[in-house]
Amino acid sequence: MSRIDELLETNLKSHKPTGKPATRNRHRIARRDFLKTASALTGGLCIAAYIPELGARSAKGASANVFAPNAFVRIASDDSVTVIINHSEMGQGIYTSLPMLLNEELETDWSKIKIEPAPVDPAYNHTLFGLQMTGGSTTTPSEWERFRKMGAMARLMLVDAAAQKWNVPTSECHVEKGVVIHAASGRKTTYGSLATAASQLKPPANIPLKDPKQFTLVGKPTRRLDTPSKVNGSAQFGLDVRIPGMLYAVVARPPVFGGKVASVDATDARKIAGVRAVEQIPSGVAVVADRFWSAKLARDKVKITWDDGPNANLSTTKMLADFSQQSASPGNLAKKTGDPAAALSGAAKTITAEYDVPYLAHCMMEPLNSVVDLRADSCEIWTGTQFETIDRANAAKTAGLPPEKVKLNTTLLGGGFGRRANPLSDFVIEAVEVAKVAKAPVKVVWTREDDLAGGWYRPMWHDRFAAGLDAQGNPIAWTHTIVGQSILTGTAFEAFGVKDGVDSASVEGAADLLYGIPNLQVDLHSPKIAVPVQWWRSVGHSHTGFSVEGFFDEVAHAGGKDPYELRRKLLANQPRMLAVLNLVAEKAQWSKPLPKGHGRGIATHFSFESYVAQVVEASVEKDGTVRVHRVVCAVDCGRVINPDIVKAQMEGGIIFGLTAALKTEITLENGRVQQHNFYDYPMLRMFESPEIEVHIVPSELAPTGVGEPSVPPVAPALANAIFAASGKRIRRLPIRTSDLATASEAKS
Amino acid sequence: MTSFFLNGKSVSVDDDPSTPLLWVIRDTLGMTGTKFGCGMALCGACTVHLNGQAIRSCVAPLSRVAGQHVTTVEGLSNDLSHPLQRAWIEVDVPQCGYCQSGQIMSAAVLLRENPKPTDKDIDEAMSGNICRCGTYPRIRRAIHRAAEMASEKRAS
Question: Exposed e or buried b for every residue in A493-513, given b needs 16+ CB within 10 A?
């Protein structure tokens, strides 16, 4: 998801990194502006009532024997406790961490908790964004207070019900694992037995929360609630949904972005057994059959002539040269402090470098899919999405129905990484279009090839740097020109995310540089290219992490400084980053000698309000093959809800970042995507997976992002390790063995 | 009609014999624990056992399993008691979980043939299975843990 929290006045007021450049908020937009935009987009959204009204509560699936004090929890007379989760589970562990927050205050028996995905309703809107959605590493920041309050509300009402029943003051009652106890009289009763009585009570006006010092669940490693279903095949992802009478469909989409169908010959396709329909839809040609496999075979037989439109000459090779040329002149100003031009010209030494990163596909293990049951006056959708409010609104528009006639069911997501938060709801509205021609409930399935060629990539980016050093080798000037497509422009988010020609998602991690360099300039070119781009795990940070931390390493070496020591020096006014940096250096034994041919690289990155530093140990073989031996990671993400989940996210983000560093690129020639499946878009595998160590800095500050912040530092830490091992500077991803073979041979 | 044994039970289907087993299991028989990831035997999400050997069901035609025994993740145990399932829960391996059926089915063959695998053995047996969430370090730990659990069980 986008760095949307970067754009908003977030409610994470509990910390502001000291010394953060004052202009960092330049591109932040007031939350009310975002909400205005969101409201326009979704046709009149109102912010969720923090505590739903009594009338609204009773509508939420409650029956006489079920206590549903708010939209987030239901307690039944059999003592079962259902926590309704308004964010999507795509691996980040929120189906466990959100119930932990709620139960910290509810205090029921943890083993009684069941989870249920929320329907689409304003009551479930993200507290920062005013939309029901998952992204920007913001689920915990959004729900940290709300879920505890919802749990506390239920507990207060249950205790009240017990106290009234026993005719004793509530202050004499306490709760242990879902049982209300009146110690003085020895009376006890379970939450379930109080469900009916509690349902008759009014919610309390004040909901005090525990002092965090009293936490018994939050902060403790707690096993995930969804693991059992994920080891016996019972977990239901979107692709696993089956409804009565359901057909299957695949879609033939144009090979060039913006292309159109010129003509279709479906004669041979219709001969495949089980084929029900071959019909043109706005995005291409839908092939509908009784089974997926028949639809897939039939699609291979459809003869389509495409009108490629204006983009048939798109070439990433050419774009690479164009981007470099554009970066030679400054773009729209994103940040300026001091007088960088004067400082550069007066510097004792200057260095320059250019960095490149390619388009990248999200490549979730579960390919995109949606099930749609479209009727004359209703539409029901099952899909793994990160964007419920927007998808429902877009689906309604496509179906010609009011949004309240569209029921959207969020399934488990087999990975998201931002792709399932599509601003146009591409994979959802297309399925509604297919349902129109299928004239039956239908599951639309994307193949891996469809996914990789389908666009909505992490943008390709070019970064040009210049730095000036003083006579002692300290950087005194830093200029950074960025070239890459704007993610937010042209979406409903443009109004609040793009200002003065600068998309904040393009410059995040660069314009908010934490290092104390007195003369700094960051500017941006945003070329318009027909390749659809989208937020991809860590968004703009996925390029600025690599380029900024790689170039910083170059600056350190140019000035004869140890890369760790120079970072320490320039982070003197950034205590939280300095602490993770020092911790990672200590745990990785930064100055301890390594075996011959091995090198260590270090990098830091601030993103999603979290501080991460990593040290990578790597070696380069004679043929240029890179071996990543060990990654040590330190993170400060504020207060930790579930340390084991934080560790898992750091580990996963590191592997994700290493895949981008070592393996993947989407390229285009003649407007056509050159990659097809895992044979030419390879993922890091078990034998390439390093030992990973994660260290969490204890903190009592508000929780910050966890899902994305470990991605940005790993590519530069690896590149810097390769430099230490081989003397070869990596300025282009993915790292190519062909670039390294000679250097390594020469060294050995 | 093609008949085979799925998790010990005889099943008969009328899909075309060239249909990949994956789609027979998922769409015709409604067992959705086995996953689609690539369709080319590149990612391992569709791993099942054919007569005890790990195969990629996305490229195995139905005709190949006629009369044979196929085991899916649902057939590993009916109560989460398989050492791999217990170890996966103890280590909390899965994130999104989509690839984990295939990971576990690959690991099950490894452990049966090599009750005490080294890291290198694990690399060799498990490198056909992709996990985009990056759970490899935990899969490794869980396989070692499952090996311990299985040996404790044998000793007791």
Answer: bbbbbbbeebbbbbbbbbbbb
ipTM: 0.98
Q: Are residue B149 and residue B87 in the same domain, yes or no?
A: yes
- The CA distance from A302 to A295, in Å, is 10
Summarised one tens digit per residue, pLDDT across range A694-736 is: 999 999 999 999 999 999 999 999 999 999 999 999 999 999 9
Q: What angle do CA B137, B143, B149 make, to 5 degrees?
A: 135
Chain B residue with Cα closest to A291: B27
- Kindly tell me if the per-residue pLDDT of A8 is higher than 80: no
The whole-angstrom distance between B86's CA and the closest CA on chain A is 9
Q: Do B130 and A683 touch (CB under 8 A)?
A: yes
Q: What is the pLDDT of residues A280-314, one digit of tens each?
A: 999 999 999 999 999 999 999 999 999 999 999 99
Of A227, A293, A413, the CB nearest to B94: A227
Q: Which residues does residue A632 pair with via DSSP β-bridges, in sequence order?
A: A615, A693
- Say if residue A746 is exposed, middle or buried (CB neighbours under 10 Å; 0-12, 13-18, 19+): exposed
Helix axes A643-662, A541-558, angle to 10 degrees: 70
Does A240 contact chain B (CB < 8 Å)? yes
Question: At CA A501, angle to CA A496 and CA A506, rounded to 5?
Answer: 75
- pLDDT of amino acid A64: 64
Strand segments (E) across chain B: 2-6, 9-13, 47-50, 53-56, 69-71
Domain stops at, among B75, B107, B133: B75
Nearest CA in chain B to A88: B96
Burial of A138 (0-12, 13-18, 19+ CB in 10 A): buried
* Domain covering A327-359+457-747, topology: Aldehyde Oxidoreductase; domain 4 (3.30.365)
Domain termination residue (choose one: B56, B75, B94)? B75
Coil/strand/helix, residue A613 = strand
Mention every residue, 6+ apart, whose C-beta is less than 8 A from residue A589.
none
Confirm if A132 and A125 have CB atoms less than 8 A apart.
yes
Estimate to the nearest angstrom the gap between the alpha carbon of A20 and the chain centroid: 24
User: What value does the mean pLDDT take over residues A666-684?
Assistant: 98
Q: What are phi and psi of B55, to 5 degrees?
A: -130, 160
Can you tell me whether residue A135 is helix, strand or coil? coil
pTM of the model: 0.93
CATH assignment at residue B91: 1.10.150.120
A246 in reach of chain B (CB within 8 A): no
Shortest distance between the Cα of A290 and any Cα of chain B, in A, equals 9
Distances (CA, A) of A729 to A228, A478, A590, A736: 45, 19, 20, 12
Is the Cβ of A648 closer than 8 Å to some Cβ of chain B? yes
- Which residue is closest to A94 within chain B, CA to CA? B95
Q: What is the pLDDT of residue A491?
A: 74
